[in-house]
Specification:
Chain lengths: 179, 387, 251
């Protein structure tokens, strides 16, 4: 198993920490993992992204140039990351905020109304967690339990209610299937 | 082995230095190493050490000079332009035979360059960098785990040979997170052997201690430099470190250090799965450079390929080591773009098939160069954004 | 016969390289006497500069380090923060401290490092042969200002003591001179206070000493002393610029 992932979105959407969570979840499951952020001037304009690799064998390069999966949370990220995706790769689109649609035919796409689902779950702040759930459900790269476990390690001061809420968001996302 | 924890390179480095007994840190803000001073600012206080945000890179290295003179395990970190500024103090410490740790989390250059990871400071690091005849022990980690564990090795080597040691990392290693664990227990500096040369409180059992880099009397400096050269000889003999993978039967050996070696490893894996006999040679000490081993390998392989995030700096050492016995090619990613494993693999195939794809050659560039770009009305560099 | 004076224990018994009439010899002796009197020799660390006082590390009979040009206060910071029980003094000339090392002295002062700085102001670069210093007076001839310092070309001299006294953190700043026996005695008092402050944990203490350089000024020592009094003192008035000698907590 090898999954090179790019997660991208607005600064406040928590895409960078979602990446940390994913890497931590992989580590929890005994996988080799890496996480690499965009930093400095690259983040000007408010768009952030990170690379995550989850692999059965050692991670060669932490910078994911041709992702197996791209999770795009805002409009500007779609045209940036769709072309990078590997042929046959998975594109998870936050359809609540992204009105454009991908043009490539050689990729799988999951449209996830992350913000609406997050509202239904009970907190708008869990939108990226919904996308992570969709990723876990579609790829099986990490389990939802591993992500929940990772939450406790990464967000050490998170209250149990918050963890439970995020778990619900993960589960809601995991139910969605590729089109 | 302890359970692996997810850590950012810069933080693993800072914590690793603390565990290695570093009790003085001075630094100046510069991307992409800011997590190091940020971490040190609270962590040194916790362990009873000292942290100073210096007014400049120059002041920071001179604070290290003072702290190291007292025998304290002292460290500064910076990134390329900042390390250039530190050369004054590094040269002084080499001249004064003081152990310390300098970390360069390299970024793109020259000048302000950019803030992405790069490998353009190899020559500066391995040839001393400042004025005068001297060397630094240069360690090149290629993972967060090595970044975290190398400070201990660096301090030990620096103290053993009484000279500054450098960890040459880059922005990718500094910024990335990986699972890592420390392979040593935290060191209480009080348990380290006393340094009889150090400045401090004199209980009367010794004369005055003096730390300086000058030898102004006739013949004095030559003696000092030659004495130091003896230690350099011992280091070149005893402290060479490297890693090899699939080199025994390799037709082409890729030579790469630091983060580049990981792209190179991916290339080797891909090539092997296609039946191409490629191998990886990774220098871990850039000085002392593993020249002897490379000379041996030159007898068994057909060619070598240096994969570097620069215009080709380490290749100078590889060519010196192999002394023209085999062709040494270059895959270059200057300007701080990450080497692409697929391109490195293609470069290896080019070597085997007598092609030029992905092989960097300055002479070819001259053929291609657009002379019009040197006219004043044309800009040589395009305006653009970072990676 | 009972000796009335002797070489201070804090000076090594070797001849110095200073020129006849040079102020450094006098100031070295004063610092050494103070170290003896305060009984701090065995825990004092001297930082020698680049400049005429480069060999101060050899002359003072205590641990010593010679550092890059102007960086004394940064080195002092590293030593003092690593070994707070030591007594650290940086001995610097005007090229070293007020030109290439201006950032280091200002920031060490601003941080309120508990160190002692002895600043020798003789308005000229001595070791390199009489070039213009940041302290060179208007009209004063230097090898890089052969027609005399011109305000329009080279600006005005820097009054370091006055400048540093604008900062909040320094605890003691005084300008003294070694031109007369009385002034030499006053200089010693100031130097002693600057060391006593460090022993007491008071904080950053700075003594500027007006001194002469007959060699590079190209005059007899007697004339040099006249120059100090008539030309230097109007630009660099003697006095205490800051004295907040209350013991502070911590550091």
């Amino acid at each position: 198993m090898y999954q090179g992932v790019r997660i991208a979105g607005f600064g406040g959407q928590g895409v960078v920490s979602a990446g940390v969570l994913l890497a931590q979840a992989g580590l929890v499951e005994g996988k080799a993992v890496s996480w690499f952020p965009s930093y400095g001037p690259e983040m000007r304009g408010g768009t952030a992204n990170c690379s995550v690799v989850i692999s059965d064998t050692e991670v060669a390069t932490p910078v994911v140039c041709a992702p197996d999966t791209a999770i795009v949370m805002n409009e500007p990220s779609l045209p940036k990351f769709e072309p990078m995706l590997k042929s046959g790769g998975l594109l998870i689109i936050n359809s609540s905020l992204i009105k454009s649609r991908p043009t490539r035919k050689d990729i799988k796409v999951i449209l996830v109304p992350c913000n609406e689902i997050a509202e239904e779950v009970g907190s708008a702040r869990t939108s990226t967690m919904v996308a992570l759930g969709a990723f876990a459900g579609a790829t099986g790269a990490v389990s939802l339990d591993a992500i929940e476990n990772a939450m406790k390690k990464v967000f050490k001061r998170a209250k149990p209610e918050m963890i439970a809420l995020n778990r619900k968001a993960l589960e809601a996302g995991a139910k969605l299937k590729a089109e | 082995m302890a359970e692996k924890v997810l850590m950012k390179g810069n933080e693993a480095l800072a914590e690793g230095a603390i565990r290695a007994g570093c009790r003085f840190f001075a630094g100046y803000p510069i991307t992409p190493q800011n997590e190091v001073p940020e971490y040190m600012s609270w962590r040194q206080e916790e362990v009873g050490g000292a942290f100073v945000q210096a007014e400049s890179e120059v002041a920071a290295i001179n604070m290290i000079y003072g702290a190291a003179a007292t025998g304290t395990r002292a460290m500064t970190s910076s990134s390329s332009p900042g390390v250039s500024l530190k050369q004054e103090g590094i040269s002084y410490m080499a001249g004064a035979d003081l152990p310390c740790l300098i970390v360069n989390v390299m970024r793109g250059g020259p000048g302000l360059g950019n803030i992405a990871g790069a490998q353009g400071d190899y020559i500066q690091a391995t040839r001393g960098g400042g004025n005068g005849d001297y060397r630094l022990i240069v360690l090149a980690p290629n993972s967060v785990e090595e970044l975290g564990n190398f400070p201990k090795l660096a301090f030990e080597l620096a103290e053993k040979y009484r000279m500054p040691a450098m960890i040459l990392a880059d922005g990718i290693l500094g910024q990335m997170m990986e699972g890592m664990s420390y392979n040593f227990d935290p060191i209480d500096p009080k348990t380290l052997p006393a340094k009889p040369w150090a400045l401090g409180i004199n209980d009367g059992s010794r004369g005055k201690n003096m730390i300086s880099s000058y030898g102004l009397g006739e013949g004095e400096l030559e003696k000092m430099v030659l004495k130091r050269a003896e230690r350099y000889a011992l280091i070149e003999r005893d402290e060479v470190r490297y890693e090899e993978r699939f080199t025994e039967d390799a037709d082409v050996i890729i030579v790469a250090y630091g983060i580049s070696s990981r792209a190179a490893m991916a290339a080797v894996n891909a090539l092997r799965s296609e039946g191409v006999k490629a191998g990886l040679f990774r220098p871990i000490t850039l000085w002392p450079f593993p020249s002897k081993r490379l000379a041996e390998l030159a007898k068994s392989c057909k060619a070598m390929l240096c994969a570097e995030m620069s215009l080709g700096q380490m290749i100078v050492d590889v060519k010196l080591a192999t002394a023209g016995k085999i062709p040494v090619h270059l895959y270059a990613k200057p300007g701080a773009f990450f080497p692409v494993a697929e391109e490195i693999a293609e470069a290896v195939k080019s070597i085997l098939n007598g092609k030029k794809d992905f092989l960097f050659n300055l002479a070819d560039l001259a053929d291609k160069a657009d002379n019009t770009c040197h006219k004043p009305e044309n800009k040589i560099c395009k305006e653009g954004t970072l990676l | 016969m009972k000796p009335v004076t002797k070489r201070p224990e804090s000076l090594v018994d070797i001849p110095t390289h200073y020129c006849p009439g040079c102020g450094h010899s006098v100031v070295h002796r004063l610092v050494a006497e103070v170290m003896d009197e305060l009984d701090i020799r065995k825990r004092t660390i001297c930082i020698a500069p680049v400049g005429c006082a480069v060999f101060a590390d050899k002359y003072f009979n205590c641990d010593a380090i010679q550092g890059p040009h102007g960086r004394g206060p940064a080195i002092a910071t590293g030593i003092k923060r690593s070994k707070p029980d030591t007594i650290v003094f940086s001995y610097q000339g005007d090229g070293d401290l007020a030109s290439i090392g201006m950032a280091e002295i200002v920031h060490a002062a601003a941080r309120g490092e508990n160190i002692t700085v002895i600043f020798i102001n003789n308005t000229i670069y001595g070791m390199t042969g009489g070039q213009m210093a940041p302290t060179t007076l208007i009209g004063q001839v230097a090898t890089t200002a052969p027609k005399g310092r011109n305000e329009k070309l080279q600006g005005n001299p820097i009054n370091v003591s006055e400048m540093l006294s604008q900062l909040k953190s320094p605890k003691y700043i005084e300008r003294v001179s070694v031109d007369t026996p009385q002034n030499v005695m006053n200089a010693k008092k100031a130097i002693k206070k600057a060391f006593q402050n460090q022993i007491d944990g008071v904080g950053f203490s700075f003594v500027e000493v007006l001194s002469i350089c007959p060699t590079n000024w190209g005059v007899e020592p007697i004339k040099a002393l006249e120059f100090l009094r008539e030309k230097m003192m109007p630009q660099y008035p003697l006095g205490v610029f800051k004295d907040e000698g209350k013991k502070q907590e911590g550091k």
